[in-house]
Design a protein that fits this description.
Layout: E1 10-13, E2 19-23, H1 28-40, E3 44-48, H2 54-65, E4 69-73, E5 76-80, E6 94-95, H3 100-111, E7 116-120, H4 123-126, H5 131-139, E8 143-148, E9 152-158, E10 167-169, H6 175-185, E11 191-196, H7 203-210, E12 214-219, E13 225-230, E14 239-241, H8 246-258, E15 263-270, H9 277-284, E16 288-297, E17 300-308, H10 329-337, E18 342-345, H11 358-368, E19 372-375, E20 380-383, H12 403-413, E21 420-422, H13 435-441, E22 445-448
Parallel strand pairs: 2-15, 3-14, 6-7, 10-11
Antiparallel strand pairs: 1-21, 1-22, 3-5, 4-5, 7-9, 8-9, 11-13, 12-13, 15-17, 16-17, 18-20, 19-20
Helix pairs in contact: 1-2, 1-7, 2-3, 3-6, 5-6, 8-10, 8-12, 10-11, 10-12
Bound molecules: shikimate-3-phosphate (S3P) and phosphoenolpyruvate.
The site of phosphoenolpyruvate has 10 residues, from helix 3.
Organism: Aquamicrobium segne
Protein name: 3-phosphoshikimate 1-carboxyvinyltransferase
GO molecular function, one term: 3-phosphoshikimate 1-carboxyvinyltransferase activity
Length: 453
């Protein structure tokens, strides 16, 4: 769906204690990869618990356009893939909507094919840098036939007859860039090496191994990861149980911490250590989060969380923790707005190139709602108001086609003295279509409001 249609404002009001138990929808990163790897592998892949958010469904459509059979039967998604190396040239541009992950990983996946592929997306996606993926692809022999200025979408790729394996050190902490090179390597003869100085989410490595790819990871004495992948091997369909998305769990989690009297349970949360930075940070801030029922499901650690309202205090979040909580900073800034003292968040340069410039969007929305904060080049500092007295009541927050900005400010309104309004809730469906129902089910006072003039 495009978000150019009339915007759908929403308002969140000071709420009674949040209570109850919720199950979090599937992880977005793992869901994208399930469609991609299932669509590529030979034989049948079954996916249980897929996130049916707009971003992920776009990836499914792209894989269909390149020859994969994908259908939903009951609660399961069943895929019959093309076999590695056998994707077909799509007949029309691939439209990735709002999804950076879908677009960037698919550029890697198809870039090394001897065919033309065009990538389009919404205004947010078109503003995001793609050079970070195109640069290594060019080294492998991929031509960028056309691109908007600054290597942006819309863009068209043409792969070489035979791609060249490379050794590539990822220049920024980005799982999308790492993954794009690994996926390009699948259709490249020989061994491609990706060097990752700062570890990011490792779903691509883990899942590709599960599908039968020849992939090895060595971590050197400095903690630098060297990932070796041999191309043109066989991938075989798998059964995948998608765990709940910790980046979505973050919203009810922070809501329960800031709304007095709350006591909720969040079930089925992925606990992969490359994704749990927010939980650790909130615990350091004094959050009462009990992690129970730990288990391993389909190769990933999963647990349930009991969360109770807590008086938070400000902390400094180590910059090196950023990759393990990169999408959670907006909602952490909301938690910090209710903490005693200052919360300092350095190392946030990547936030400037997400669905929106999240540093600028958060700082603007916080100020509008009377939170004292400082936006640095790559940092944010928030000085909180325990109890939320005087917070909220500003003009509608501009969400800039960014689902996480939208959900973060709705969470803020649940505990601030005055209501918080956002200009458009439609974008939430990109990652968490169940958000409004799930939150109101816990007792959150959130509702749509008449379209603004
Ligand atoms: O690989 C992934 O699934 C993702 C990687 C991260 O992006 P970057 O690689 O740009 O940090 C994250 O922000 C995004 O939501 C999902
Ligand atoms: C950054 C995000 O996603 P993407 O890059 O896939 O658009 C996100 O979901 O917060």
């Amino acid at each position: 769906m495009s978000h150019s249609a009339a915007s759908q404002p929403a308002i969140a009001r000071n709420s009674r204690p949040l209570t109850g138990e919720v199950r979090i929808p599937g992880d977005k990163s793992i869901s994208h990869r399930s469609f991609m790897f299932g669509g590529l592998a030979a034989g049948e892949t079954r996916i249980i618990g897929l996130l049916e958010g707009e971003d992920v469904l776009r990836t499914g459509q792209a894989m269909k356009a390149m020859g994969a059979h994908i259908e939903k039967k009951g609660e399961e998604w069943i895929i019959r893939g093309t076999g590695n190396g056998a994707l077909l040239q799509p007949q029309a541009p691939l439209d990735f909507g709002n999804a950076g992950t879908g677009a960037r990983l698919t550029m890697g996946l198809v870039g090394t094919y001897d065919m033309e592929t065009t990538f389009i997306g919404d205004a947010s996606l078109q503003s995001r840098p793609m050079g970070r993926v195109l640069d290594p692809l060019r080294q492998m022999g991929v031509q960028v036939l056309s691109a908007a200025s600054g290597d942006r979408m819309p863009l068209t790729l043409r792969g070489p007859a035979h791609a060249a394996p490379i050794t590539y050190q990822v220049p920024m902490a980005s799982a999308q860039v790492k993954s794009a090179v690994l996926l390009a390597a699948l259709n490249t003869p020989g061994i491609t090496t990706v060097i990752e100085p700062i570890m990011t989410r490792d779903h691509t490595e883990k899942m590709l191994k599960g599908f039968g790819a020849k992939i090895d990871v060595e971590t050197d004495e400095r903690g630098v990861r060297h990932i070796f992948i041999e191309g043109q091997g066989k991938l075989t369909g798998q059964t995948i149980h998608v765990p709940g998305d910790p980046s979505s769990a973050a919203f009810p989690l922070v809501a329960a911490l800031i709304v007095p009297g709350s006591d909720i349970t969040i079930c089925n949360v992925l606990m992969n250590p490359t994704r749990t930075g927010l939980i650790l940070t909130l615990q350091e801030m004094g959050a009462d989060i009990e992690i129970f029922n730990p288990r391993n499901e389909g190769g990933e650690d999963v647990a349930d969380l009991r969360v109770r309202h807590s008086q938070l205090k400000g902390v400094t979040v180590p910059a090196e923790r950023a990759p393990s909580m990169i999408d959670e900073y907006p909602v952490l800034a909301v938690a910090a707005s209710f903490a005693e003292g200052e919360t300092r968040m350095p190392g946030l340069e990547e936030l400037r190139v997400k669905e929106s410039d999240r540093l600028a969007a958060m700082a603007a929305g916080l100020r509008q709602n009377h939170v004292d904060c400082t936006e640095g080049e790559a940092s944010l500092a928030v000085r909180g108001v325990p109890g939320g007295k005087g917070l909220g009541g500003g003009e509608a927050v501009k969400t800039h086609l960014d689902h996480r900005i939208a959900m973060s400010f709705l969470v803020m309104g649940l505990a601030s003295q005055h209501p918080v309004t956002i200009d458009d809730k439609a974008v939430i469906a990109t990652s968490f279509p169940e958000f409004m129902d799930l939150m109101t089910g816990l007792g959150a006072h959130i509702e749509a409001v008449e379209a603004m003039p």
